[in-house]
């Protein structure tokens, strides 16, 4: 079986994937390979079911998240979006990030769940704009260098959103 | 009497035979067993027609082990030897529970707690096995044959230690576990198939001792869990306990002995059940010191006493919604599961939170067992494929202890199962040949706030300078939600030896010893039985591999086919001998010889599935 996640799902490698086909094919693969289908099978069958279902889940998680999908597309081009030596960020985005972090800390200190949710929604809408931009950069212009910057931003946006969710959960307890 | 099945001449009987499989809801308060007959899921009753088996085990003076209603009758007169709600102790240590509130004598020891009874020291796994044995016997009696296996349900929020303990209990009871299934997922299967539901559903499952919430997407027979959350120490028992505390306070009672505690707890439970449909109830009982308690409690008082317990279920719901990326507007229905959801104050709070009336049209006590039976029927192979598929998740993150006692997450909660993740480590000192790894489960940042699952020692690392060795540790969580770990030194490709010390589970030796102790038969019978079992498993793999060759031998070359056929012949020859160990080894060899063929077939079947063709349409 192929190691390429797009091929596994019968998709052409692109950022703007056909979500309905992606979901349907994921379920078809799981229907054929899930360990539940081989409970009374041989140990060898169980092993290959486990391996394929695990690969399908990993591929699904990677392609489902826009940030990870973009990162994976770049990897297929031999580009590592995030590494120890490749963390440069445009100044305006760094400023933006610092603002978000400050807003996060303020809302946390004020124990204001509503403000955290607002911030989350605001950042998410920035993320949506980046995703639209990535369709253009990755699928049409194939401008991988600019796409790498945008992908890195999207990854940072996901990180901030995860931290906001963590803060909300903490306050919820 | 069950009719004997006769196959068509020349055909193997195996594919047509209805295999006997059951679903078991091993509950905190009650346990049930169900099976699918004529396409419908039924709960099986005992000889009196009672379907609920109280999860109570009594170790009697005459050395008998009594389970169920008869055991329940002993809980007031013999509380030390009558174990109720044992599920709360599964995979738990003594410091995890409030032992002062319980009438048992706990044995002091590390790891899973143990209870001193007149029949000796019992692990919660052994106590649970007694309940499972009764259900197994009930099912075999009703179905007229031996079971090929069972699906056993566990709370979705059970951690690895609790799941492993449940599986061990089934092994002790002589049950083949087809799958551990999460209770809310089982309920969703029973509910969804019954009502042909599609969309996003919340399962609110408040059992006797555990609370689970799962959010599932139901679509064309696929039940995909989007997120799960819960509290594995919150249930109907806690509502009884609130009434119990209220009685002590209101009647100004001094601390009670075990007998009085048990009696008051029973009275509290009765009061709770009565208040489900009545405005008030009277609690009256005579204490062992002659003091008479006579109180009246109203529905309003009960609601006020338990308001914060009900509220405690809301926070897990919020977390699950957030993890699924959903809001209450996205929810198409809320299904209530577990006897405790009969309490009106719970239905009211859930209705208010979701802004819709919860669905209560299935018996909340039975829905989990019914769903488990449906899954058991599918897993046993009685139903054709691609009709039902359950995609479940891991409820709690898995991680490793890193420097400073911090937990580093390796597999995040709500990852779809099965899942595998690898992490690389290196050595700290020159020539280091071993390292120890601590696996924890939970969401907190400090290791001390998480549950310790196991400590692993990796040995046999080739000596190198510090930082040169690259040890890849792979975590695999299977469809039962159970973790296994393997490790490999990458630069030399040495498979490191792993010594597992489960923090709360039983070791393989302990289980083997318990199994041995449970065999009453003579040594000769035992070895005869083991030989028969070995031959049966050899026969099963031979027919499975033959069937696979018949269907798909075109996928591999002639040499590969004849190599597999040679192994089949070899195993068949060994089966004619009385050498049990050699038969097991032969099964292992045949399995190994078919690994590549199995992988090729798996890929082919996935390709066929994607091409949208049914298997029988393919001509190779």
- Which sequence of SSEs, written as H and E, runs from N to C of chain A? HHHHHHH
Determine and state the CATH class of the largest domain in chain B.
Answer: Alpha Beta
Which fold name corresponds to the CATH topology of the largest domain in chain B? Answer: Nucleotidyltransferase, domain 5
- What is the class of the largest domain in chain A in the CATH system? Mainly Alpha
Supply the number of helical segments of chain A. Answer: 7
Instruction: Please give the largest β-sheet of chain B.
Output: 6 strands, mixed
Cα gyration radius of chain B (Å): 26 Å
- Looking at this structure, what is the CATH superfamily of the largest domain in chain A? HscB, C-terminal domain
CATH level 3 topology of the largest domain in chain A = Monooxygenase
Secondary structure: number of strands of chain B: 28
Largest interface: chains, residues each = A-B, 38 and 50 residues
Distance between the termini of chain B: 44 Å
Shape of chain B: globular
CATH superfamily of the largest domain in chain B: ATPase, nucleotide binding domain
Domains of chain A (count): 2
Task: Outline the structure in words.
The complex is a heterodimer of chains A (about 170) and B (about 625). Chain A is built from 7 helices and no strands. Chain A is globular and about 55 Å long. Chain A folds into 2 domains: about 5-65, DnaJ domain (Helix Hairpins); about 90-170, HscB, C-terminal domain (Monooxygenase, Up-down Bundle). Chain A has helices at about 5-10, 20-35, 45-65, 65-75, 90-110, 115-140, 145-170. The longest helix of chain A is centred in the C-terminal third of the chain and has 29 residues, at about 115-140. The mean pLDDT of chain A is about 90. In chain A, helix 2 (about 20-35) runs antiparallel to helix 3 and helix 3 crosses helix 4 (about 65-75). Chain A is an all-alpha fold. Chain B has about 625 residues and is of the alpha+beta class. Chain B folds into 4 domains: about 15-195 and about 365-385, Nucleotidyltransferase, domain 5 (2-Layer Sandwich); about 235-310, Actin, Chain A, domain 4, CATH 3.90.640.10; about 400-510, Substrate Binding Domain Of DNAk, Chain A, domain 1 (Sandwich), CATH 2.60.34.10; about 520-615, Substrate Binding Domain Of Dnak, Chain:A, Domain 2, CATH 1.20.1270. In chain B, strands 1, 2, 3, 4, 11 and 12 form a 6-stranded mixed β-sheet that branches. In chain B, strands 18-13-14-15-19 form a 5-stranded mixed β-sheet, sandwiched between helices. In chain B, strands 21-20-23-24-28 form a 5-stranded antiparallel β-sheet, with no helix packed on it. In chain B, a hairpin with a 2-residue loop joins strand 9 and strand 10 (about 120). In chain B, helix 5 crosses helix 6 (about 260-275). The radius of gyration of chain B is 26 Å and the shape is globular. Mean pLDDT of chain B is about 90; it is low at about 1-15 and about 615-620. Classes of the chains: A mainly alpha (about 170), B alpha+beta (about 625). The interface of A and B includes residues 10, 32, 44, 168 and 173 of A.
């Amino acid at each position: 079986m192929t190691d390429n996640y797009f091929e596994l799902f019968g998709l052409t490698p692109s950022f703007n994937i056909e979500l309905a086909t992606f979901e349907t094919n994921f379920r078809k693969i799981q229907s054929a390979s899930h360990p539940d289908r081989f409970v009374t099978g041989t140990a060898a069958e169980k092993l290959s079911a486990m391996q394929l279902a695990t690969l399908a889940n990993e591929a699904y998680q990677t392609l489902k998240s826009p940030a990870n999908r973009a990162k994976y597309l770049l990897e297929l081009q031999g580009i590592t979006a995030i590494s120890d030596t490749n963390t440069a960020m445009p100044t305006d985005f760094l400023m933006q990030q610092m603002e978000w972090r400050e807003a996060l800390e303020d809302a946390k200190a004020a124990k204001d769940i509503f403000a955290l949710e607002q911030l989350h929604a605001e950042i998410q809408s920035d993320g949506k704009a980046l995703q639209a931009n990535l369709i253009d950069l990755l699928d049409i212009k194939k401008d991988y260098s600019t796409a790498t910057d945008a992908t890195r931003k999207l990854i940072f946006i996901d990180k901030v959103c995860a931290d906001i969710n963590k803060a909300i959960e903490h306050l919820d307890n | 009497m069950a009719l004997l099945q006769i196959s068509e001449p020349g055909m193997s009987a195996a594919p047509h035979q209805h295999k006997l499989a059951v679903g078991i809801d091993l509950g905190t308060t009650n346990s049930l067993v169900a099976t699918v007959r004529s396409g419908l899921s039924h709960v099986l009753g005992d000889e009196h027609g009672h379907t609920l088996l109280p999860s109570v085990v009594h170790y009697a003076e005459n050395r008998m082990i009594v389970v169920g209603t008869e055991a329940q009758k002993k809980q007031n007169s013999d509380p030390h030897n009558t174990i109720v709600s044992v599920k709360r102790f599964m995979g738990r240590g003594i410091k995890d529970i409030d032992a002062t509130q319980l009438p048992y004598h706990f044995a002091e020891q590390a790891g899973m707690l143990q209870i001193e009874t007149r029949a000796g020291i019992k692990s919660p796994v052994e106590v649970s096995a007694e309940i499972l044995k009764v259900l197994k016997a009930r099912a075999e009696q009703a179905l007229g044959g031996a079971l090929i296996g069972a699906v056993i349900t566990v709370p979705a929020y059970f951690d690895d230690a609790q799941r492993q303990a449940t599986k061990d209990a089934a092994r002790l009871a002589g049950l083949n576990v087809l799958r551990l299934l999460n209770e809310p997922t089982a309920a969703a299967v029973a509910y969804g198939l019954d009502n042909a539901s599609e969309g996003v559903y919340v399962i609110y499952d408040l059992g006797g001792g555990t609370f689970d919430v799962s959010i599932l997407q139901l679509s064309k027979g696929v039940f995909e869990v989007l997120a799960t959350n819960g509290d594995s120490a919150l249930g109907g028992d806690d509502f009884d306990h609130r009434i119990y505390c209220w009685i002590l306070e209101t009647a100004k009672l001094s601390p009670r002995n075990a007998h009085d505690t048990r009696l008051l707890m029973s009275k509290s439970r009765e009061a709770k059940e009565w208040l489900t449909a009545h405005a008030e109830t009277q609690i009256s009982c005579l204490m062992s010191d002659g003091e008479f308690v006579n109180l009246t409690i109203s529905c309003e008082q009960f609601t006020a006493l338990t308001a914060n317990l009900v509220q405690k279920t809301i926070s897990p719901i919020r977390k699950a919604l957030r993890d699924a990326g959903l809001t209450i507007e996205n929810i198409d229905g809320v299904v209530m599961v577990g006897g405790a959801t009969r309490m009106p104050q719970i239905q009211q709070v859930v209705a208010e939170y979701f802004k819709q009336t919860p669905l209560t049209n299935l018996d909340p006590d039975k829905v989990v067992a019914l769903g488990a039976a449906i899954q058991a029927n599918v897993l046993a192979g009685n139903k054709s494929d691609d009709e039902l598929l359950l995609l479940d998740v891991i409820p709690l993150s898995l991680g490793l202890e890193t420097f400073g006692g911090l937990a580093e997450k390796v597999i995040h909660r709500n990852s779809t199962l099965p899942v595998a993740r690898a992490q690389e480590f290196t050595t700290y000192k020159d020539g280091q040949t071993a390292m120890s790894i601590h696996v924890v489960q939970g969401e907190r940042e400090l290791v001390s706030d998480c549950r310790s699952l196991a400590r692993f020692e990796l040995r046999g690392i080739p000596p190198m300078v510090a930082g040169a060795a690259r040890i890849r540790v792979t975590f695999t969580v299977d469809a039962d939600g159970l973790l296994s770990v393997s490790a490999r030194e990458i630069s030399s490709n040495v498979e490191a030896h792993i010594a597992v010390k489960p923090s709360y589970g039983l070791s393989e030796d302990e289980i083997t010893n318990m199994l041995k102790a449970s065999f009453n038969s003579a040594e000769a019978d035992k070895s005869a039985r083991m030989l028969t079992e070995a031959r049966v498993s050899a026969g099963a793999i031979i027919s499975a591999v033959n069937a696979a060759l018949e269907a798909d031998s075109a996928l591999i070359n002639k040499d590969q086919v004849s190599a597999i056929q040679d192994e089949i012949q070899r195993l068949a020859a060994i089966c004619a001998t009385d050498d049990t160990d050699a038969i097991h080894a032969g099964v292992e060899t045949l399995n190994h010889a078919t690994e590549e063929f199995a992988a090729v077939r798996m890929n082919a079947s996935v390709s066929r599935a994607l091409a949208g063709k049914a298997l029988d349409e393919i001509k190779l």
